[in-house]
Amino acid sequence: MKSMMLTGIRQMEMKTVADPVIINDTDVLIRMERIGVCGSDIHYYTAGRIGSQIVKYPFTVGHEGAGTILKTGAAVTRVKPGERIAIEPAMSCGKCDQCLTGRPNTCRNLKFLGCPGQAHGSLSDFIIMPENCCYPIPDEMSFEQAALAEPLSIGIYATKLYGLPLAGKKIGILGCGPIGISVLLPALFEGIEKAYVTDRIDRRLKIASDSGAFWTGNPDHEDIVEEISAKEPLLLDAIFECCGQQEAMNQAVQLLKPGGKIMIVGIPQFDSWSFPADIIRRKELSLHNVRRQNECYKPAIDMISDGRIKPDRLVTHRFPFDQTKEAFDLVDGYKDGVMKAMIEF
Fold first, then answer.
1. Is residue 133 domain-shared with residue 159, that is, in the same domain?
2. Which of 69, 77, 326, 334 has its CA 20 to 30 A from that of 29?
3. Which 3 state secondary structure label does DSSP give 335?
4. How far apart are CA 57 and CA 37, in angstroms?
5. Is residue 121 in some structural domain?
6. What is the DSSP letter of 309?
């Protein structure tokens, strides 16, 4: 089969590798149909690492996927050959203290598609996954929508972690790439009063506005803190930091009302955040990290399939499998107003 593999910093090659085979009775063989390019994929492409997770070349990334079941292990009951599925990329053990206390997203033995040292990613013709990571999708759902369930599940989880109900809350979303929009959509569904959204790409701001954001702003052209503070003198209840930038974190601290909460969703490329100790102490601000998602993948599929959330605006560019490098270069350079690039098999 063909597999698109990282071979160095900003280097990627299509290689011929052996077809994967079913080993465990609960394994499933999947033909890939769609893969979304994620910001974490780009970190591995441009830096070769995210924190302590360091790429050993050659390596295949990719984890936002949908496909078709080709073959199943002898003990599989959840899916059958021919079914169309969305793929949950996290493979938790189900046995450690974290899994047993309802935290499979922080499983001690977690394996994640496209994560160095854990599992090769899904940028291949075929992959093997355990059956519990395979979610059948209804006929009316496209493979593209199914691939969007993964980022959307992170947004649903982030709003859930902040705390429901959200009705009447005023929030900021700093960085409205795919994850920022994936926070915005469920927050709007849950009834937030106002969402203030920022990004450096105007096309992304237009998508946020069309999706229901109350106000959007570009930090390259306006003073975000000044503009939002003028509209909300009492400031905001919550900030969802979705871009992994220190500048956004500085803005978050200024924009929160006393008792407010920063939800850290973005993945920074640096090792340490910086906070003004005096301000966060006097305001009694809370910081809450969001680690991927927890039990929100199926709800994401359901909310897309029944129309409660419509994520289709996220996909702005599409590429065939053999042009994956062009897709990565586009996303890396934030070119052409890209929001989400989708790889089509």
1. no
2. 326
3. helix
4. 19
5. yes
6. S
Report how far residue 34's alpha carbon sits from residue 192's, in angstroms, rounded to the nearest whole number: 32
Per-residue pLDDT at 175: 98
**CATH code of the domain in which 220 resides:** 3.40.50.720
Q: Residue for token digits 């305001």?
A: 283
User: From CA 164, how far away is CA 234, in angstroms rounded?
Assistant: 21
Q: By C-alpha distance, which of 198, 192, 145, 146 is closest to 170?
A: 192
Number of domains in the chain: 2
Calculate ∠ Cα 182-184-189, nearest 5°: 105
Q: Looking at the structure, tell me whether residues 137 and 12 fall in a common domain.
A: yes
The pair phi, psi for residue 123, each rounded to 5°, is -80, 60
Evaluate whether residue 303 is within a structural domain.
Answer: no
Residues 137 and 157 in one domain: no
| CATH number of domain containing 325 | 3.90.180.10
The answer as to whether 299 is a domain residue is no
pLDDT in tens, 189-230: 999 999 999 999 999 999 999 999 999 999 999 999 999 999
Residues 123 and 177 in one domain: no
Phi then psi for residue 6, to 5 deg, are -70, 135
Contact between 342 and 35 (Cβ < 8 Å)? yes
59 and 133 share one domain: yes
Element containing residue 4 per DSSP (H, E): strand 2-8
Residue 8 lies in domain: 2-148+311-344
| Helix H or strand E encompassing 16 | strand 11-16
Q: Report residue 59 as tokens.
A: 């390596």
Q: How far is CA 154 from CA 88, 193, 220, 272, in A?
A: 12, 21, 27, 22
Edge-first strand order for the sheet with 194-198 is 215-217, 194-198, 170-174, 236-241, 256-264, 286-289
Contact of 238 with 190, CB cutoff 8 Å: no
The full DSSP string for 147-214 is HTHHHHHHHHHHHHHH-S--TT-EEEEE--SHHHHHHHHHHHHTT-SEEEEE-S-HHHHHHHHHHT-S
- Per-residue pLDDT band at 4 (split at 50, 70, 90): very high
Kindly state the helix (H) or strand (E) to which residue 286 belongs, with its residue range: strand 286-289
Query: Is residue 269 scored above 90 in pLDDT?
Result: no
